[in-house]
Every structure is written in structure tokens, then in C-alpha cells.
Design goal:
Elements (H helix, E strand, L loop, with lengths): L3 E9 L9 E6 L2 H12 L4 E6 L15 E13 L2 E19 L4 E7 L11 H20 L4 H9 L4 H10 L5 H9 L3 H53 L2 H15 L5 H16 L5 H15 L12 H11 L4 H19 L2 H5 L11 E5 L6 H12 L3 E5 L7 H4 L12 H9 L5 E5 L12 H8 L8 E2 L6 E2 L5 E6 L7 H4 L2 E5 L5 H19 L7 E3 L1 H10 L7 H19 L6 E3 L1 H8 L14 E2 L1 E8 L2 E13 L4 E4 L4 H16 L14 E6 L13 H13 L2 E2 L3 E3 L2 E2 L5 E2 L4 H10 L4 E5 L11 H6 L1 E5 L2 H8 L3 E4 L2 E4 L7 H7 L1
Parallel strand pairs: 1-3, 7-12, 7-13, 8-9, 9-12, 14-15, 19-20, 22-25, 25-26
Antiparallel strand pairs: 1-6, 2-5, 3-4, 4-5, 5-6, 10-11, 16-21, 17-18, 18-20, 23-24, 27-28
Length: 809
């Protein structure tokens, strides 16, 4: 048994010293320095070097391993921060006991001998020894040590155990694993474990070398490319083409920052290479440069921050527009759907590849001019926080207006859609396609057909402009189209749009719009202060009714502007400081009235019935006049009537002839008699079936010599059997009758739901009669008429006898 030694303890942090290995150690802790001084005072200069389990400053016996190395201090170098030692490991040792003498740690240690293999000549052990020696030499060489030094060191160690300790001392492995090797007494086990670590480290070095060579190769290629580019730059500088190189480099940098789709990346790279090869002053270079600049300016993945706050959107729409409640509700419903779809979990949208999350209907605003279609679209963009882009399609006749020209053409440019996206600067603008019903068709193609792809949510995520030549994603764009007449929009295009109808404003709504928006705006535009001009409600009503005839408010604003300019001149001349305009002053300021709306007739007349009609600028009344005269039994129709209206007149006459005895028409009324039906305002073309009941009333009134009521207006289509069929435009027609001073209207019974579109104040002031048959219309329209036993009876006539009714039947 080896003798016991009492030695000072040198605690090692993150270091394990092996026997037979020399290692430099730094020490600076006071207790450690005192232990080193004690070792130096002894003759042997021995110290017990043992690793700490934990990296702590204050060392206690509990943080030290029990197995360490008896080491000899070979050299020492003192400094300000401590000392530097060169330790040489002598033997393994086990600490039997640690103690503190008040100045440093001491240990009672005993040397530990290696456990040699049972048979040193065993081929397996000999092979293990040789393999470990060979791999150690390889590791030394790969680590950068000279081959002769490695060979010399390894040849100086013949013992397998010492070889394992020597190699373990230079391995880059964690301290815990190094301590494990130190504690492994079996030479064979230690040699095997060291071999595994050596092999692993060789593998790491090989991988590092491979990565290094790849990097060097790549750097070499880049350096070569940079060298060639520098040469090319120098050559171009000599040729005076230096600016072109700078431009191409700038373009390349700009395009590199874009997150382009794969197809666009390939096209851009191809064009950049062509631009580098092309002569700067050539036409081809100009075309390529323009193309690449267009690509660089497009918002491929730039989005505007969208806010879908419904309350704020409702406030903005209410601020910007008065009335249009149906339109506002539809717009808010549309925004609510978008908000809910954005909140929905992503996996719900990903569950079906065909379900595009951001898709929604494409809105079509339909209505007469000046009712706020374009401004509502602008308000939607403001409410959503998106950029607003408007392009006018009125008169566009070329498909290239939408899709762009191919780059092979001189002066080629992108279509209006891509130009609008460039203008928006974001992928998700509100895009207004104004006047889609005014698209033309020519030999250059049909632009409406080109719009089919743009406005189809299933296709527009890969819209390909002829100029770009690569797909561009339009799926996040909110498209809004406007039109005056949906009949002019091709069917396939209309099928992709969700229609939102804008009706004309009532007189009351126009008055409110003028007061809230038009007058303040015109005061600003004409340099007037609110206290300098006051326009009364009566004056605004006078301007609305006598100077404008429209569904919207554009003409009304022009007339208010004209009045403002007249007032501005008076104030500028010093003629007045403040002017108040009332209804009687309007004529003097802006001239005599330009519009002469129809008013109800003053009295009942024979052969004159009042009808209602619809125009895009609002409804109005019309008078249908019928006269009976000697002739050959012909029907004469005048007043620029269309085919449908003429057919209504013939149907009315046929009904009158076939029901003459029931309608109180004399038997000889149709003999040698011509009937003339005229609709005044002969210069204005008229058409439509809704004047059928009016014509029938006028004809029956003329033939029966009974006056028709002047305070009643009617509309409806008739059949030969006398049925009254529903018509359209009820709101506008009734409002036109109200403007003319009529409070009693006759409508087809099936149009009853349309009365809900009327303002509440108008609906409550009207006397509405809903009818199904012409008999009911005549009972109401002819003065003093009533229907008894299938016959029209007038006041003052004897009742129909039942026997005559039976005879007639």
C-alpha cells in the first residue's frame, strides 16, 4: 500500500490535470496563494491539484472532487493579479481527508495505481493501443501541430496508461468528462474512452475543414466576381459609361429589397442581365430600365395598416353624407363581414383551400349623377384607413387600358390597374372604377371583357398585366365600381358585382345637404365668411325647385356658387357688408328660373289624366290627353312615344272598346271616329309600360265624356283584361307627384312594399290607393264615378237594374 502524504490543496476551476502532463495554471485567491507558498517551502514542491465540482470563489471540502493529481510546481511567475504556475502532473491520488488549518486547505492523500489489463499481449488490447496512438497522431496533425513534434511526443510515452493520460490532457472536452477519465483506473477502459473522444474530435475538425473550404471557395468566387466587376467598371469608366453602372447597381439594390414572387424574381434577374449587357444609349436599355423601375415601384408586399372600427366608420359616413341610409347600412354590413372574417381563427380559413379569407363582394354603386357614389367610396377608404385610388373608365375603348401593352410595342406602358396600384403604394387600397357603364368597344378589343379577370375574386390573385408579364396579386384590393345605368354593363361583368342602388334625394334631403355641406363649401370657395352671407331655407328651396332638375345636388351646388359669386362682388365693391338672401331675392341675383316643373292641373278636364314617370334625375308628373273627333276609326299617337308606350295605348283602347257598355261609353262612340292620344313635352322621347292606366283613364274619360280628377296621379301597367301590373321607380314617381302638389296617388297593389322607401313625412301626408283592376282606377280617377254590378255608374244616373245585368251576362 502506498504511503499517505499531507499536501496543500490547489483547487482548479474548469481544469483537470492529468499525470504526465504539464499545464500552466493561474492562481489569485488568497487561500490558494497561501497553499502555493506552503508547497514551495517544502523540499518536494508537491501540491495536490484537484478540480472543483462547482465554479465558486470560496472553496470548502464539499465542492472538491476526491480524485486529483499530485503535481510538482516547476515554474512560478508572480504578477499584480496573482501568480502563474507551471504544474507537472506526477501521479493520481485520492484525498482521504480534507482539512483547514486556518490559512489554506490541506489534504491527506494516497497515490492510486493504474489497473493494467489482465493480458498486456492480448491482440485486442494491442490493437486498441495502436489505434489510440495512431488517432492521437492524426488529431495532433489536424490540430496544426508539426508532424515531427507530434511523433517525438508520442514516441516518448510507451506505457498505454500514460499515453491515455497524455492524450486526455489535450482533448477539448467538458471538465466533468475529463474528471471521469481521471477517475478511470482501468487502463483499457481509459484508453477506449479516450479513443472515442479523439475520434469524435477528428470528426469535428473534418467538418470544420469542409465548411472552411466551402466558404473559401465561395469567397474565392465572390472575390473573382468582384475583381471582374471592378475591371468592368474601370473599362466602362474609360468608355464614359460609369453612370450606367451606378444606375444598374442602384436598381439591383432596390429590387433586392422587394419580396418578389418566384416568377417575378426570374424575370427581373433576366432583365437586369440584359441591361448590363446593353449599350446605355440604346432604345433597348431605356425600355428595360423603365420596366425595372416600374417593377421596383409596385407594392408587391407592402400593406396599409387597416382599421375596421364599425363605430368610427358609421361616424365618418354620417359626417360626410346626409341621407342614403340604405346605402350606408349596406356598406357597414360589408365592413362588418370583413371584420368578422379577419377575427376568425386562421385554421378555419385554412380548412378549405378554395376559401380565400380576404375575399368579399365587389360593390357596384348604381344611381343618377351627383348622388354621392364617388364620395361614398372615398369615405369608405377613410373609414378603413386604406389608400384611395380612382380611375375613370368613361370612354375607354382599348383592352390595353386595363391590361397594358406588351413591351414589344414602342411606348408600351402598364394598364390603368397596375398604374393605380403604383399610385396607391400599398397592396390593399380602395380602388374606385368610375363609370363602368361608359366603357366602349372597338376593333382594339373590349375593355369590359378585360375587367372580368380583375373583378373576379377567384382569379384576381394572379392578374397578369401585358406589360409586367408576371402575375400580380389583386386579391386584397377592395374594388368599388360606379355606374349610372346598369343596363349598359355586359351581363358577365354585372354578374361579378353586388349592386347598391342610390336613389335621388328628396327636396327635404337636398335642403339639408345644401345647409350642411354645399353652402359652407361655396362660402369657402368664394372667399366669404359665414357672417357675410346668410341664405334662408326658403331661398334654398326656391333654388332647388325652380333652378335645378336633378336627382343629385351638383347643379344645386353650382347655383349656390353662382349666388355666392354675385354676393362676393357686391361685398368686394363695398356695396354691402352683410347680405341676407331670401326666396324673393334669388331671381334678382341669379336670373329668372330655368326649370319649369309640372304642377297639378287647376281643374278637372274631360280626356286629361295625370300620370307619373321616372327619369334618372328624379320623378315627375305628366298629362295624357285624349281627344275624340270625326274620322275613320284610327288611333293617332303623338308625343315621341316609344314602342312599349304605343302598345299600352292600343291595349287601353281595346279594353275601352271591349268594355264599352260597362264603362258607360255610348254605342256610337267608336263609329266614324278617330281617337288622338297626346303626351305633352313632345320634344322628349318617352317609353315604358307604366303609363297604361293613365292612357286608359284618359281614353275612357274622353269617350264617356266624364271629367278625370286633376288632384290624383296614377301609374301602372295594364293588360287587355284590365289587370293592373306592378312597375318600378315608385319612390321617385311619388316624390315627383308630391312636388307637383298632388296628395292622392294610385299604385298597383303589388307595389305596396315599395312605399317603405318613402320618407316618413311624405308617407304620412299621402292618400295612397292600391289597385288590382282598371275598374278600381276608373272609380277613383273619374269624378263622381262608382262601380256597381259590373258597371261604371256616375252620380246623377239611375242605378243599373239587375235584369239588365242578367241580360248582359
Amino acid at each position: 500500500m502506498s504511503e499517505r502524504l499531507t499536501l496543500p490543496v490547489l483547487p482548479l476551476r474548469e481544469v483537470v490535470l492529468f499525470p504526465g502532463v504539464a499545464a500552466p495554471i493561474g492562481a489569485g485567491r488568497p487561500a490558494t496563494l497561501r497553499a502555493i507558498e506552503a508547497a514551495l517551502k517544502s523540499e518536494s514542491h508537491l501540491i495536490f491539484a484537484v478540480a472543483q465540482r462547482e465554479n465558486v470563489d470560496t472553496v470548502t471540502p464539499g465542492v472538491l472532487y476526491t480524485t486529483g493529481t499530485i503535481a510538482k510546481i516547476s515554474q512560478i511567475q508572480r504578477g499584480l493579479g496573482g501568480v502563474q504556475l507551471l504544474l507537472h502532473g506526477e501521479n493520481r491520488a485520492t484525498a482521504l481527508h480534507y482539512s483547514e488549518n486556518g490559512r489554506y486547505l490541506e489534504a491527506i492523500v494516497r497515490e492510486v495505481e493504474d489497473l493494467p489489463p489482465l493480458n498486456p499481449g492480448d491482440p485486442a488490447f494491442v490493437g486498441l493501443h495502436r489505434e489510440a496512438r495512431g488517432r492521437a497522431a492524426e488529431l495532433g496533425q489536424k490540430s496544426g501541430l508539426p508532424e515531427d513534434v507530434v511523433r517525438q511526443v508520442l514516441e516518448g510515452v510507451a506505457d498505454p496508461g500514460r499515453l491515455a493520460d497524455l492524450v486526455a490532457g489535450y482533448l477539448e472536452i467538458p471538465p466533468a468528462e475529463r474528471q471521469g477519465l481521471l477517475e478511470t483506473l482501468s487502463v483499457e477502459d481509459r484508453l477506449r474512452r479516450v479513443l472515442v473522444h479523439v475520434q469524435r474530435q477528428i470528426g469535428v475538425l473534418d467538418a470544420q475543414e469542409q465548411i472552411k473550404s466551402q466558404v473559401q471557395e465561395e469567397l474565392g468566387e465572390r472575390q473573382r466576381e468582384m475583381f471582374l466587376r471592378e475591371q468592368l467598371k474601370a473599362i466602362r469608366k474609360e468608355l464614359g459609361e460609369e453612370n450606367e453602372v451606378v444606375e444598374v447597381d442602384e436598381l439591383r439594390k432596390r429590387l433586392a429589397t422587394l419580396d418578389l414572387p418566384e416568377a417575378a424574381k426570374k424575370e427581373v434577374e433576366r432583365e437586369l442581365q440584359r441591361l448590363e449587357r446593353a449599350n446605355r444609349d440604346s432604345m433597348e436599355a431605356q425600355v428595360i430600365r423603365t420596366y425595372l423601375e416600374t417593377v421596383a415601384e409596385l407594392p408587391w408586399n407592402k400593406r396599409a395598416e387597416e382599421s375596421l372600427d364599425l363605430k368610427r366608420a358609421a361616424e365618418i359616413l354620417e359626417q360626410d353624407h346626409y341621407g342614403l341610409n340604405d346605402v350606408k347600412n349596406q356598406v357597414l354590413e360589408f365592413l362588418a363581414v370583413r371584420q368578422l372574417r379577419q377575427r376568425a381563427p386562421q385554421q378555419a380559413a385554412q380548412g378549405n383551400d378554395d376559401d380565400k379569407e380576404a375575399k368579399g363582394p365587389i360593390l357596384l354603386f348604381v344611381g343618377p349623377p351627383g348622388v354621392g357614389k364617388t364620395s361614398i367610396a372615398k369615405s369608405i377608404a377613410r373609414a378603413m384607413g386604406r389608400p384611395y385610388v380612382r380611375i375613370s373608365l368613361g370612354g375607354a375603348r382599348d383592352e390595353a387600358d386595363i391590361r397594358g401593352h406588351r413591351r414589344t410595342y414602342v411606348g408600351a406602358m402598364p394598364g390603368r390597374i397596375i398604374q393605380g396600384m403604383k399610385q396607391a403604394g400599398a397592396k390593399n387600397p380602395v380602388f374606385l372604377l368610375d363609370e363602368v357603364d361608359k366603357l366602349g368597344v372597338s376593333f382594339q378589343g373590349d375593355p369590359a371583357a378585360a375587367l372580368l379577370e380583375v373583378l373576379d375574386p377567384a382569379q384576381n390573385d394572379s392578374f397578369t398585366d401585358h406589360y409586367l408579364g408576371v402575375p400580380f396579386d389583386l386579391s386584397e384590393v377592395l374594388f368599388i365600381a360606379t355606374a349610372n345605368f346598369p343596363q349598359s354593363i355586359p351581363g358577365p361583368l354585372l354578374d361579378r358585382l353586388e349592386m347598391v342602388n342610390f336613389a335621388g334625394y328628396t327636396e327635404r334631403e337636398k335642403l339639408e345637404i345644401a345647409r350642411r355641406y354645399l353652402v359652407p363649401r361655396q362660402l369657402r370657395d368664394n372667399g366669404l365668411l359665414p357672417e357675410q352671407l346668410e341664405i334662408t331655407d326658403a331661398a334654398l328651396s326656391e333654388i332647388t325647385t325652380s333652378y335645378t332638375r336633378e336627382a343629385g345636388v351638383r347643379q344645386l351646388e353650382r347655383e349656390i356658387g353662382k349666388l355666392g359669386r354675385k354676393v362676393a362682388r357686391k361685398i368686394a365693391d363695398g356695396g354691402a357688408e352683410r347680405i341676407r338672401v331670401d326666396a324673393g331675392d334669388v331671381d334678382d341675383l341669379i336670373g329668372r328660373p330655368k326649370v319649369h316643373p309640372e304642377h297639378k292641373a287647376r281643374e278637372d278636364q274631360v280626356g286629361v289624366a295625370t300620370g307619373m314617370y321616372y327619369t334618372p334625375v328624379g320623378g315627375d308628373i305628366m298629362f295624357v290627353e285624349a281627344s275624340v273627333m270625326r274620322g275613320k276609326g284610327e288611333l293617332v299617337l303623338t308625343g315621341q312615344l316609344g314602342d312599349v308606350m304605343k302598345e299600352s295605348a292600343r291595349a287601353a283602347l281595346t279594353y275601352a272598346k271591349s268594355h264599352a257598355d260597362q264603362l258607360g261609353i255610348p254605342e256610337d262612340a267608336f263609329v266614324e271616329t278617330d281617337i288622338h292620344v297626346h303626351v305633352p313635352a313632345g320634344a322628349i322621347p318617352k317609353d315604358g309600360p307604366s303609363a297604361g292606366v293613365t292612357m286608359a283613364t284618359a281614353l275612357v274619360s274622353a269617350l264617356s265624356r266624364r271629367a278625370a280628377r286633376h288632384d290624383l296621379a296614377m301609374t301602372g301597367e295594364i293588360t287587355l283584361r284590365g289587370r293592373v301590373l306592378p312597375i318600378g321607380g315608385v319612390k321617385e314617381k311619388v316624390l315627383g307627384a308630391v312636388r307637383a302638389g298632388i296628395r292622392t296617388v294610385v299604385l298597383p297593389k303589388e307595389n305596396a312594399p315599395d312605399l317603405e322607401d318613402l320618407p316618413e313625412d311624405v308617407r304620412s301626408s299621402l292618400d295612397v290607393h292600391l289597385v288590382e283592376d282598371l275598374d278600381e282606377v276608373l272609380t277613383l280617377a273619374l269624378r263622381g264615378a262608382r262601380f256597381e254590378a259590373g258597371h261604371l255608374v256616375f252620380d246623377g244616373e239611375a242605378p243599373i237594374e239587375p235584369s239588365l245585368v242578367a241580360k248582359h251576362n
